[in-house]
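Moderator note: this is an archived Q&A kept for reference. The question asked for a predicted structure of one protein chain; the sequence and the answer are reproduced below.
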Amino acid sequence: MSFSRRNFLRSASVLAALSVAEMQSLAASAQIADAGKDVRNDDEEFWRNVRLMFPLSKDLTYLNNGTFGPSPYPVIEAVKAGMMESDMNGQYGSWENTVAKVAKFVRANENEIALTHNVTEGINIGCWGLPLQKGDEVIITTHEHMGNAMPWMNRQKVHGIVVKTYTPASTADETLNRINSLITKKTRAIATPHIPCTQGQVLPAKEICTLARDKSIFSVIDGAHGPGMIPLDLHDMGCDTYASCSHKWMLGPKGTGFLYVRKDFQNTLQSYTIGAGGDNGKWDLLSKPMATTSDYVDSAHRYYGGTQSNGLYAGVVAAIDFIETIGANNIYERIKFLGKYTQDGLLSFGDKVELLTPTEERSRAGVNGFRVKGIDFQKFYGMCSEKKMRIRAVPENGLNSLRVSTHIYNNTHEVDLLMEIVKKAVS
């Protein structure tokens, strides 16, 4: 059965009464019928019906996609089907098919993608694989998630590298200037988030990587909040490594992720986590007098090994399909629209609310950080919880702020509900 968008909007209102399987079939077919076509970013009726494809509780206002994104029904069904196939028929493998899907999604080659379980795992592979020595400097931000800060701090503890920090500025150009001012002859790596988890500023990743390459410095990017929020072309970005996950803006299963390692960089980044498939097939345990080793496989498979979940990685494929049927650019424009709508609401309170996320067009997307002056951030978080609204408190690095992150299952009414809480707090 085929569905036009009009039919989808008319039929989506009954989705909640259907079984999961029926909902998946009806909703997915409706979306596929309009795959790639433009959808207005302010078409609240369309996006409200998209929300029906998610199992979010109707009484919950979920504004915390930056922690993790709830998966839509097609993803949940794919995970279930993948597990059933494996457990019913003893099917082993097939998760490798996900590599091709992810590679195409982020504009990379298949031999540049390693499967991981989360961003932190990918960051650790990149951190510990770099050829660094005591005294070598690595530049990070003051807005790090501990998943990016701790690996570098730990390597500082173990190997004596030097971690230096910068605070992102309100414009991309000034941010670049701040990074450049920290670079010395001892600087060996820039390990920066693409989008900091604290306030969602989109950093000028391509320019940062160009700066690093021009000065023979490694570029190691924390990409937790990139894929699914903004269009990615990792070859164009020019980074050496990019660690990400599927469970945030990609709306995929929790416990899945990937690491991009530029092909020409793989012989520089040492592999320490390796298993079957990570070599070129010439390892020899039977030679005399001792076992001999061979070269690594000529791909990013050298950075991971062992059994992966068929179901979870089937869910990653379904998540990318879900994004592509609605249209990655449609999703990006909707995310930016809601992000701007949120910013405008917060800015309307004047000096009673401090917006931490830049308003510069290129430096904003779907995440906004703020403080309500005169109100402890934990108290405001509690006020939201009382109204069954989920946001995030940000105690990291003494920021003591709040974060709101909106995705395609959100709408302007939910943002308005947040503003009502802000209004009550400031008054």
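Archived answer notes: The chain has 14 helices and 13 strands.
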